[in-house]
Write a structure and sequence with these properties.
The protein has helices at about 5-15, 105-110, 130-145, 155-180, 180-200, 210-215, 220-230, 235-250, 260-265, 270-280, 285-294; strands at about 1-5, 25-30, 30-35, 40, 45-50, 50-60, 60-65, 70-75, 80-85, 90-95, 125. The chain starts with a strand and ends with a helix. It folds into 2 domains: about 1-180, Jelly Rolls; about 180-294, Homeodomain-like (Arc Repressor Mutant, subunit A, Orthogonal Bundle), CATH 1.10.10. A 5-stranded antiparallel β-sheet has the order 2-10-5-8-11. Strands 3-9-6-7 form a 4-stranded antiparallel β-sheet, with no helix packed on it. The chain has a two-stranded parallel ribbon with strand order 1-4. The longest helix is centred in the middle third of the chain and has 26 residues, at about 155-180. The chain has 11 helices and 11 strands. With about 290 residues, the protein is an alpha+beta fold. The protein is elongated, with a radius of gyration of 24 Å. Helices cover about 50% and strands about 20% of the residues.
Length: about 290
């Protein structure tokens, strides 16, 4: 698999115009493109707007072939591939080398946007009004990219990128809310997967978001955000609630010791179980057990 350390190599190998800046570039996609037919990785963030007529985008190990206009996001070293793409109309891609963010507040802020870890089938689908907002921001970035190269250029371009990311966060919120029924189904499936995992006796240790997300065919970050919107709790918080509920049921029996219950629930360290129990309930397992006996 090819890895691109520089934007120049990424552009040259894929037949794109050479970038105006060594660490930042924008590309208006023509009706057809062969960008990255073979899987590749790069030291860049990718922000793109796509409206496909045909073709396949591979992102990670999933395939995306939806026809609606959408935003896609990839972080450095994420596997990407674009095969036989044909667009209904203009699309764009923004490439930001990770070094371009050094010393800028986005260097840290960009890690807060969970959608960079979503899979392609979890892309952000835009309404016509939302598409226009993204295009307006793109045109501002593109104008600064092509006509200016002074001490203000970087901050101006990144300020528009920041706005694009903030709008994306807002629009994803709308997408989650608009999928309330689907979210409800996801919550039910999550609880079912958690209960099924419990029935296995926690042979693989404590349940975690990665394992449960894989069973639901979702990325861990997308699953957690979807559950947060529906329940107010993240996936890991729901896992903890489930474990504490089961722990309380077992503590009601005076047959088992706390350490035995901890091991049966998948905890390698009983002291970690006790800390988590106290964090969630305000009392230790032994204190909870004593209260039941009084």
């Amino acid at each position: 698999m090819q890895h691109f350390k520089s934007l120049a190599d990424l552009h040259r190998i894929n037949g794109l115009p050479m970038p105006e800046h060594p660490l930042f570039s924008v590309y208006r996609c023509p009706k057809t493109t062969t960008l990255g037919e073979n899987p590749f990785t790069a030291d860049v963030y990718i922000i793109g707007f796509k409206k496909l007529e045909s073709g396949v985008i591979m992102y990670g190990r999933t395939q995306y072939d939806h026809e609606n206009g959408c935003m896609l996001f990839a972080r450095p070293r994420q596997i990407m591939a674009f095969k036989n793409l044909e667009y209904h109309e203009d699309s764009f891609i923004i490439f930001i080398h990770e070094d371009f963010l050094n010393g800028h507040f986005l260097h840290q802020e960009i890690n807060k946007y969970a959608f960079f870890d979503y899979e392609t089938n979890e892309a952000l689908h835009l309404s016509p009004r939302e598409e226009q907002i993204m295009w307006d921001l793109f045109f501002k970035i593109d104008a600064e990219y092509r006509t200016n190269n002074d001490e203000y250029s970087r901050n101006i371009m990144l300020s528009h990128v920041d706005a694009m990311l903030r709008y994306s966060q807002r629009f994803y919120k709308r997408q989650f809310i608009g999928r309330t029924q689907l979210s409800g189904i996801t919550v039910s499936k999550f609880n079912e997967a958690l209960a099924a995992y419990f029935k296995t006796g926690f042979a693989e240790g404590l349940p975690n978001v990665t394992i449960l997300a894989a069973q639901l065919h979702l990325s861990p970050r997308y699953l957690s955000d979807l559950l947060k919107q529906e329940t107010g709790k993240t996936a890991i918080e729901l896992i903890h609630i489930f474990l504490i509920k089961e722990a309380k049921n077992r503590l009601r029996s005076d047959v088992q010791r706390v350490s035995e219950i901890a091991y049966e629930l998948g905890f390698d360290d009983p002291s970690y179980f006790s800390r988590l129990f106290k964090k969630e309930t305000g009392v230790t397992p032994n204190q909870f057990k004593k209260r039941l006996l009084n």
